[in-house]
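User: Hand in any protein.

Assistant:
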Amino acid sequence: MTQDQTQDHVMEGRCLCGDISWEYTGEPTWNALCHCESCRRASSAPVLACIGALRAQVTWTGTPAIYRSSPGVERLFCPRCGSPMAFRGEDFPDEIFLYAGSLEDPSQYTPMLHTHHGERVPWLQLADNLPIIHGSNEEAKT
């Protein structure tokens, strides 16, 4: 892929009320379905779909509020409507994980793997063949 092709790939997302929006120019670093307890609670959903993005290539309109959910972890959300928007952590200094549920065009998202699969809720059964990462520090398993 050439630099020009990367620059042409644009994704946009926004919160429910429209006060906070983001634009990402570039290819996702990865697209994951996260099953960790923290992401489940932050999104009030059984699994969180997120887009790995380079922080330097994300532009925000409006100022998201920040909740420090655990040491080294920040969750960004709309201070008006409460929509969760993104996750960033000190373990990923150059990346931010944008929430795919905020995408203007959801068809731009295709999950690549499951992460924190060992924390999944037992009643959610997904019939896919995506690689699985059971925790934070291991390789994906198919």
Notes: The helical segments are 3-8, 37-43. The longest strand covers residues 48-54. Confidence is low (pLDDT under 50) at residues 1-6.
